[in-house]
């Protein structure tokens, strides 16, 4: 049913196999293999230069076969001892590619290395050993001496090991690692010690990014800071020299072989490098300038590094429709994205090869996306380098702590420290558009603190957007802090439709998730998704329609981006464009590309503006009304219109004034008609009282759609509050209602302002951003709701004086309705 992924030419597997046998390493047995699994061998474990933005000529890769052993807490490092097992670095211990394929809370890595004589280490240069990432706590020893300690599974670190080196010959390096994953509060992202066959996956412990060494002068370039400034057509360059003073910098900007500018200045402070008539970086034209930097002490060059940068600027502006939108280089651009979790069936956290690492990003471009959300994970530097070169914008998540509960103070502080490290190490990548500290309230500890975290990230890197909380409407969220540059909702299948406010753009942070099982290409042999479909044709049509809804939301609601779940299947989730093994395309990519490109092309900020629903019918009588004063019979009269309600399993009772209708958890009053235009403005009011107020939902008034009610005026059992609701969105009363007490409830949908509001006893108690709603033609019903095509949420209580309006009532009108004569 689908096309297999093209595989690059295979490497010399015969010599690789011989080398593997000689080394004692043996690949484990992955449940699924990717097109690159069998290209991995001890001689080619990610051999590429690992730091594309700070390149030096001399370096040596330390990836390959290391000795390995599980350990006990507090164990003495095994100096000079051969360890029993062999592991292929840098693949996580749990992965098949590592050869270990199990988790250890504590572990040792060991190998030997020699230092090339021509590096002049100990005379002209020092020796640094660099680690891309080690999960989670690492201690590094060279020749029995501790040379580095690092905490955090996603940050790079390095060590000057010069003082620990022997004069010549083999040098021993041992790395001790502790990774207890979600048994602690350490940031783990989606990793779990016990995967849940849901949205949490296999762990990835130990060394999982490249290890390498290089000779570095005592006075050297530690890091480069590069900030493009389009207004002045310059690159603002800062050179970290580790505190060395009196140094100068000579910098050359190149366009290929052409020299664009030469600059010379003190290494202290910021240097403005001219980039005249700058070629701007964008998804359609991802142009990158080369940068050569020489660090000089007097006339003597002490260090030389090469790098690159893109001239681009991220910002916001109001569109023609008055809504705040995202801009790239001053022009409105819709951020059309997928969710990319960066998991592999053979390497788990680590792609088997650099080609594989690039593959997923290349497919984003093939599919017509211009953005990727790196979800609850980071990647090796080369991933961001590929994104820069391909022209893909990147939302960068902070890997979250575990779900369930709120973290203690020490864990909060460590999370913030690791977030600061992430921003510091990622802020030079051209492609990163913004940072996402929190997701769906996972391990969030305070709404106020979430806001402070967002402000701290913005202060650290003011050139990018900060999305304080992706999915702030969802799950464990403590609510909107009001901070950052982005308001982000999740909705499945969605899309989510938050409206921008005066200071923040809005995006649909997650939606979609349509799933299709593909035999022989599933991690567990079966899978799940937010909505399963039966075949590829259905999957194509559901995706295309869903994306048309995204465009409608962009035009009418003003969202600046959307993120579809997801680029590939991951373990039990089968909602990718590709199967988990990257072997099968699950959709028609031409159809996907066409609709994606249409969104980017037409979500230009012109919009359709807010709808003009017209004035509606004046007065507070309503367009339909039910007094329930009959006291007998099987129907209730519509005292204003002609939609009399048919009664099922109800009783007549005393009301606020005159009669009322009582419900015992299985009754309804079906008006037999569609009383409310749910795509426009309307109001619904009723007197209601509850016989019980527990954890069950109970609906006072709703309108059927065939699937889910278009609205619910209800008691939300989950929140134990009154609510005016759409699916996934509730305007809630501040207090739990008392059993047996009459309350006047009014729900108001204002299509022009894009709000959904709840009034209790004549006072507005809550309002939610709800920019659009789909029309519905189902019956309006009193006493129950509809969800998933089923009749649900039956009321246990009584209702009196239900009224419907074809316009939003004013505060004064609602207050008048709530008065008792």
What CATH calls the topology of the largest domain is: TIM Barrel
Rg over C-alpha atoms, rounded to the nearest angstrom: 30 Å
Question: Treating each run of at least 4 consecutive H or I residues as one helix, how many helices?
Answer: 8
Q: Major beta sheet, specifics?
A: 14 strands, antiparallel
Specify the CATH homologous superfamily of the largest domain: Glycosidases
Q: N- to C-terminal separation?
A: 69 Å
Contiguous uncertain segments of 5+ residues: 1-18
Note the overall shape.
Answer: elongated
CATH architecture of the largest domain, by name, is: Alpha-Beta Barrel
Number of domains: 4
- Helix-strand category: mainly beta
Helix content: 10-25%
Strand portion? 25-35%
Q: How many beta-strand runs? A: 50
Average of the residue pLDDT scores: 94
Can you identify the CATH class of the largest domain? Alpha Beta
What oligomeric state do the depicted chains represent?
single chain
Write the layout of secondary structure elements.
Blueprint: H1 13-23, E1 60-61, E2 64-70, E3 85-89, E4 106-113, E5 125-131, E6 134-135, E7 137-142, E8 145-151, E9 157-160, E10 171-178, E11 206-207, E12 211-217, E13 223-229, E14 234-240, E15 248-255, E16 258-266, E17 270-274, E18 289-297, E19 300-309, E20 314-318, E21 324-328, E22 331-332, E23 335-340, H2 354-366, E24 371-374, H3 381-390, E25 393-397, H4 409-426, E26 432-436, E27 438-439, H5 447-460, E28 465-466, E29 469-470, E30 486-490, E31 505-512, E32 514-515, E33 531-532, H6 536-556, E34 559-565, H7 589-602, E35 624-626, E36 635-636, E37 645-654, E38 659-670, E39 682-690, E40 698-703, E41 712-716, E42 721-726, E43 729-732, E44 743-750, E45 755-760, E46 763-769, E47 780-782, E48 785-787, E49 790-792, E50 796-805, H8 811-817
Parallel strand pairs: 23-24, 23-34, 24-25, 25-26, 26-28, 27-29, 30-31, 31-34, 32-33
Antiparallel strand pairs: 1-12, 2-3, 2-4, 4-10, 5-9, 5-12, 6-11, 7-8, 7-10, 13-14, 14-17, 15-16, 15-18, 18-19, 20-21, 21-22, 35-50, 36-37, 37-38, 38-47, 38-50, 39-44, 39-50, 40-41, 40-47, 41-42, 42-43, 44-45, 45-46, 48-49
